[in-house]
Design brief:
The complex is a heterodimer of chains A (431) and B (501).
Chain A (H helix, E strand, L loop, with lengths): L13 E7 L12 E4 L26 H8 L4 E5 L33 H8 L5 E6 L5 H7 L2 E4 L19 E6 L2 H11 L26 E5 L9 H16 L3 E5 L4 H19 L18 H12 L2 H14 L5 H24 L2 E5 L14 H6 L5 H6 L3 E9 L2 E9 L4 H16 L1
Parallel strand pairs in A: 2-3, 2-4, 7-8, 7-9
Antiparallel strand pairs in A: 1-3, 4-6, 5-6, 5-10, 9-11, 10-11
Chain B lengths: L6 H10 L7 E2 L2 E2 L1 E10 L39 H13 L3 E2 L2 E2 L1 E5 L9 E5 L5 E9 L4 E13 L3 E6 L4 E7 L6 E7 L6 H17 L11 E9 L5 E6 L2 H20 L7 E6 L4 E4 L12 E2 L6 E2 H6 L7 H12 L3 H8 L2 H10 L5 H19 L8 H12 L5 H17 L6 H7 L7 H14 L1 H8 L4 H14 L5 H12 L5
Parallel strand pairs in B: 14-15
Antiparallel strand pairs in B: 1-2, 3-12, 3-13, 4-8, 5-18, 6-7, 6-17, 8-9, 9-12, 10-11, 13-14, 15-16
Helix pairs in contact in B: 3-4, 6-7, 7-8, 7-9, 8-9, 9-11, 10-11, 13-15, 13-16, 14-15, 15-16
Chain lengths: 431, 501
């Protein structure tokens, strides 16, 4: 199998190109839906962007894959991603970075960078991504498309290879809000196999009427590290919403100060446990059975996990270990509770929150060499994951020719309202 | 509910608080034992997936699915029946059921573990603070239960080669995800015998609840904590049979006493029980340094168990059944205890009791049959109730002597063991000439004896009653025990009556 950039896939948007046919005609008939490579596809290799899963062919379809195939979608392949979703640029893929269609020298954002590149370049009309701390919204913003991180518990995670279970959701990505909303409608059907799912399917309501809607703008969303040109673009977008009849309310979200730390402790802790199963015994590159098992496990994991994955496993293992649990994991859960409280307080006053999706536009491939500066790029997206609330990114123009995303966040299970506001903005800008 | 502190519990508290003062029982240092008992719940499907739990006669890795194989992307889905079973146990063991119980991940690497962690419960178990009364030396003894929780069984390793020359190991995941209940006791046990009794008590209770099958291989596993007062405690892992618990603990007491006698210290450590050799061996010290990094299982929601348990009714438990047996059938407390000590035995007895003479049924089931079964290491479940009932019927109608009935029973059980079809008692008696044959035949033998033992006959007629016993003995000999001695005495008396009066 040819991997990396090819004539067929110059942006390296896909890890595996494979035409997975629909099972029945339906609302997605004639539509291509690319699927991120951490979502299991029966009979088609699912690597999560990791060498440790090369050759792993799932014997079952994820619930969302079942749903889209039963609605007529054709899956053109499995999209590139940061290994196990650990990254914000798709540079951490075990199969080479994906390239931004707007500027192939720049990153797509991540970790669902392949999905965003596939949609933005027209290789697929829609895509499924996953969002643990911004992994749908970040590449949607960087590639100039629409992406929604649904409310936690609204989409079945059955078949999604876990990175951080309590944070992540599968979500739709598309060029338009209407397409994104349609895909969301299809994938939100209940599945009893995911105990954290609730039977509250998404019922689209795209009328573009946001008159009287109250939209909060937390000062922290425009704080330190946010590129002034990006901030300016987003403020203009917010004034468009105001022009459409929404009331803009300045507000504060003090928990933002701890959100990033709480996020990274939580996701690495969960990851250190989730990724323990990759030991070379049952699938993926085999461990050397002639060696004592612990040596063989160590060898496989050292050889086939990339450096960022190894780093996060180490951080998470440390955060959960005896004597440090209270100081790190325990404390992170307290901070997480503060973030939830901030949201519920704010959502008593306003219906939505608005701000930039990312503090900057897409950077150049290889530009961010230290992990910390990459982590900092997630500051605006992680709060929604910590609280489990829905958040969308909708394109709101460009800065120096590179797309900027407007992030809209709503109350839990009000994904419909978030999408309607995004729709209003999209239509308002067109008019 | 609160746990009443009875005499037994009170004395346990005193002993565990023994601050260096040599507490001595029976002239030796006090032995302190606490158990962690893991029992497989006999639900139809596994704890977190729909795979069948009936795997023992099937090839390896045939009862598996993405979830119990821990394939990437799979998720656990709670088996509500398993929770109900565990709650039944909690209720039967008089525990306080939590408002909310929560699953946690226990993280460690091992090839039999499909996910690199085991889903178990950690700081929010299903239930805490219960007790079970067991037969003590003398009075009943109350053993306190610390906690009860649910968890999943890992797979099973099969080691190829020999212990000295291991070659490789194969892994079978059929067992992966079987629901386990872990029952932890307080260190209230004082001897290997008591530990065995506790296990028997737990087994009986769980079987009465219909949640456990103690006959299934590997359905019970025990870790024991044992110390001699004043010394460090040692954890003995890997005990997988009722007898093994007694053996392992007895070995460990001898070993620890030996260490102390040599003036050395017992080290706090984990040891493995090697069933085949009946010894415990020190586990590598690395294994004790586990940091399991427990945290809440994010893929499952907390269980609201307090409300749940309120809707669950307990069936009749051993103690209640013992009382009912003595009241309903008039049998002795000892027989009731034996019969109720094993669910199948109690049920077997209840099938036999309507034979007309419950006392006779109790003796035959509790004593005779049990003895014969133990001798053959046979399960009560293998005995055909209809055949045994026929035999009891014949005993009730005095159609067979006790001695002959034992012979019949032995032959029936042997037929069972050989897998043959079990014949009716009448057929067995006929075939083996065990029948209480028609009176005529005995009369013939009686007359023979009278004719041959002239001296004894004369003595009897002279009024020496003991001569009759001699004559009965002679006849018994010739009938090879088939005859009923009372019946013979009557016939002899008749025959010895002076003729023609």
């Amino acid at each position: 199998m040819v991997r990396g950039e090819t004539q067929q896939d110059p942006l390296n948007a896909f890890i595996t190109l494979a035409e997975i046919p629909p099972r029945a005609p339906g609302r997605l008939s004639g539509i291509t839906v690319a699927v991120k490579d951490n979502i299991s596809t029966r009979g088609v290799e699912t690597t999560c962007g990791s060498r440790i899963l090369s050759g792993y062919v799932p014997p079952y379809d994820a619930h969302v894959v079942d749903l889209i195939r039963n609605e007529g979608a054709l899956i053109p392949g499995k999209t590139n991603m940061d290994e196990f979703g650990m990254g914000s640029s798709t540079e951490n893929s075990g199969f080479g970075p994906a390239r931004n269609p707007r500027d192939p020298e720049r990153v797509t954002g991540g970790s669902s960078g392949g999905s965003a590149a596939a949609v933005a370049s027209g290789m697929a009309r829609m895509a499924l991504g996953t969002d643990t701390g911004g992994s749908i919204r970040c590449p949607a913003a960087f590639c100039g498309i629409v992406g929604l991180k649904p409310t936690y518990g609204r989409i079945s995670r059955y078949g999604l290879v876990a990175y951080a279970n309590s944070l992540e959701q599968i979500g739709p990505m598309a060029l338009s809000v209407a397409d994104c909303s349609l895909l969301m409608e299809v994938i939100s059907r209940f599945d009893a196999r995911d105990a954290t799912m609730q039977d509250r399917p998404y019922l689209p309501r795209l009328d573009g009427d946001i008159r009287g809607m109250r939209i909060g703008v937390p000062a922290e969303f425009f704080g330190e590290g946010v590129d002034p040109a990006v901030a300016d673009r987003v403020r203009k977008a917010i004034s468009v919403l105001e022009g459409l009849g929404a009331a803009i309310v300045e507000c504060a979200m003090p928990s933002m100060e701890y959100a990033l730390a709480a996020y990274y402790v939580t996701c690495t802790s969960e990851a250190s446990s989730n990724l323990a199963r990759f030991d070379g015994v049952r699938y993926g590159p085999a461990s050397d059975y002639k060696k004592p098992w612990h040596e063989a496990f160590q060898e496989v994991r050292m050889q086939h996990f990339g450096p960022e994955v190894r780093r996060r496993i180490l951080i998470g293992t440390f955060a959960l270990s005896a004597g440090y649990y209270g100081k790190y994991y325990g404390k992170a859960q307290v901070a997480r509770e503060h973030v939830r409280e901030d949201y519920s307080r704010l959502f008593q006053e306003v219906d939505l929150l608005a701000g930039p999706t990312m503090p900057t536009v897409a950077w150049k491939i290889g530009e961010k060499s230290d992990p910390l500066s990459m982590y900092l790029a997630d500051i605006l997206t992680v709060p929604a994951n910590l609280a489990g609330v829905p958040a969308a990114s909708v394109p709101c123009g460009t800065v120096q020719g590179l797309p900027v995303g407007l992030q809209l966040t709503g109350r839990a299970f009000e994904d419909e309202l978030v999408m309607n506001a995004a729709y209003a903005y999209e239509q308002g800008v067109k008019a | 509910m609160t746990v009443p502190i009875g005499m037994e519990a009170g004395s346990a508290v005193r002993e565990t608080a023994g601050s260096g003062l040599a507490a001595v029982e029976g002239g030796r240092e006090t032995v302190i034992i606490g158990l962690e008992v893991h029992c497989q719940l006999n639900t139809e499907s596994k704890l977190f997936c729909g795979c069948s739990t009936d795997y023992r006669s099937d090839p390896p890795n045939t009862h598996v699915c993405p979830t119990c194989l821990g394939l990437p992307g799979s998720l656990p889905a709670m088996n509500r029946r398993a929770v109900e079973y565990a709650l039944l146990v909690a209720k039967a063991l008089n525990c306080r059921v939590a408002d909310e119980a929560e699953f946690a991940r226990k993280n460690y690497f091992y090839p039999d573990l499909t996910k690199g962690f085991q889903i178990t419960m950690y700081n929010r178990p299903l239930a805490e603070g219960g007790y079970l009364d067991i037969e003590g030396d003398g009075a009943e003894k109350r053993v306190r239960i610390t906690r009860i929780h649910l968890e999943e069984d890992p797979g099973r390793l099969v080691h190829m080669g020999t212990p000295d020359r291991p070659r490789y190991s194969l892994v079978d995941y059929n067992r992966s995800g079987i629901p386990l209940i872990e029952i932890v006791t307080e260190p209230d046990l004082r001897s290997p015998k008591e530990a065995r009794r506790l296990l028997n008590g737990l087994r009986t209770t769980l079987e009465y609840l219909g949640v456990f099958d103690g006959d299934q291989e590997g359905s019970l596993r025990v870790d024991a904590n044992i110390s001699i007062r004043g010394s460090e405690r040692v954890e003995v892992k890997n005990i997988s049979s009722y007898r093994g618990v007694e053996k392992a603990l007895t070995y460990e007491i001898t070993r620890q006493r030996g260490v102390l006698r040599r003036g050395q210290k017992v080290e706090r450590e984990t040891r493995h029980f090697v069933e085949a050799r009946g010894v415990t061996t020190s586990a590598r010290s690395k294994e004790q340094e586990h940091d399991y990094r427990y945290f809440t299982e994010p893929d499952l929601r907390p269980l609201q168990v307090r409300h749940w348990v309120e809707g669950i009714a307990l069936p009749e438990l051993p103690a209640a059944r013992r009382e009912r047996f003595t009241a309903q059938y008039g049998i002795s407390p000892e027989h009731a205890r034996t019969l109720c000590g094993e669910l199948r035995l109690a049920e077997f007895f209840e099938q036999m009791a309507p034979c007309g003479n419950p006392l006779l049924a109790a003796t035959w089931v509790a004593d005779t049959l049990q003895g014969e079964l133990n001798y053959r290491e046979m399960e009560i479940g293998k005995v055909p109730p209809a055949r045994f009932r026929e035999l009891l019927g014949m005993l009730c109608r005095k159609e067979v002597t006790d001695k002959a009935a034992v012979e019949v029973l032995r032959r029936m059980l042997d037929q069972c063991l050989k897998g043959e079809e079990v014949q009716s008692p009448a057929q067995i008696m006929e075939k083996n000439m065990l029948g209480k044959t028609a009176g005529d035949t005995f009369t013939g033998i009686v007359r023979e004896v009278i004719a041959e033992c002239g001296d004894a006959v004369r003595d009897y007629r002279a009024g020496r009653g003991e001569a009759l016993n001699f004559l009965v003995g002679q006849v018994m000999k010739r009938t090879r025990g088939r005859a009923d001695p009372k019946e013979l005495t009557r016939i002899l008396r008749e025959e010895l009556e002076p003729q023609g009066t």
